[in-house]
Amino acid sequence: MIFVDSTEPSEIESVFGWGVPSGVTTNPLIFARQAGSADLEARIRQILAVSRGPVSVEVPAADEDEMLAEARRYARWDPDRICIKVPFGEPGLRVANRLDGEGIAVNLTCVMSFPQGYLAALAGARFVSIFSGRVRDPGYDVRPTIAKLRGQIDREGLATKIIVGSIRHLMDVAEALEAGAHVITVSPAILRQLLHHPKTDEVVAQFSQAWNDRGEP
């Protein structure tokens, strides 16, 4: 599956028109870059209106009680579609477990290793977000992490789905899916790059030119 990593309703609506994406992810960084001082609830409601599937909304608080309060408030915007993103860590695991017990979907995010992902799955996270680009920054290969986590999830019959984000290059998409990711989340810009292949463009242009140059009967 493919999710769209964006907070721009117009971009999200455009790519959802392809019939390809199955959900949306957001985070405080891209919200700050794209939406500035926009009201979070208003923007998320706009995104819900132009998309389908789960929409991940991250709690920025560090205090557990505040995280829980924010998560419950966000979930009320659309209990069937809002998925609460919680940063991985000891507080995050506790919050994820509490929310899962309340029937609120959780996306445990900022995961960089197999042990982290496995703990997140055991805590009840519906999604575990592995940051491909961040793992690769110091020179590590993210594929073994994805593959080991997928294998463990399958062996134990856990319900958690692996999301691979922080996608920076086209090859990251294929490699993540081949390694076993259930979902990749990409920006609309990366998604549009997936449309193109030089030979496709060449052949389409040739067909069009041939049709235009045909002689009239």
Keywords:
217 residues; alpha/beta; TIM Barrel; 8-stranded parallel beta barrel; 8 strands; globular
How would you describe this protein?
By secondary structure, the chain is α/β, with parallel strands linked by helices. It has one domain (2-213): Alpha-Beta Barrel (TIM Barrel), CATH 3.20.20. It has helices at 9-16, 28-35, 40-49, 64-75, 90-101, 114-122, 132-136, 143-156, 170-179, 188-193, 198-213; strands spanning 2-5, 23-25, 55-58, 82-87, 106-111, 127-131, 161-165, 183-186. Strands 1-2-3-4-5-6-7-8 form an 8-stranded parallel beta barrel, surrounded by 6 helices. Helix 6 (114-122) packs parallel to helix 8 (143-156). It is globular and about 75 Å long. The N and C termini lie far apart (48 Å).
CATH architecture heading: Alpha-Beta Barrel
The profile of the biggest β sheet is: 8 strands, parallel, barrel
| Helix vs. strand class | alpha/beta
Q: What is the CATH class name?
A: Alpha Beta
Write down the domain tally. Answer: 1
Strand content: 15-25%
Mean pLDDT: 94
Distance between the termini: 48 Å
Helical content class = 40-55%
Number of DSSP E strands: 8
Shape: globular
Strand order of the largest sheet: 1-2-3-4-5-6-7-8
Alpha-carbon Rg, integer? 19 Å
Which stretches are low in confidence, meaning pLDDT under 50 for 5 or more residues running?
A: none
- Total of helices: 11
In CATH terms, the superfamily is Aldolase class I
What name does CATH use for the topology?
Answer: TIM Barrel
Write the H/E string, N to C: EHEHHEHEHEHEHHEHEHH
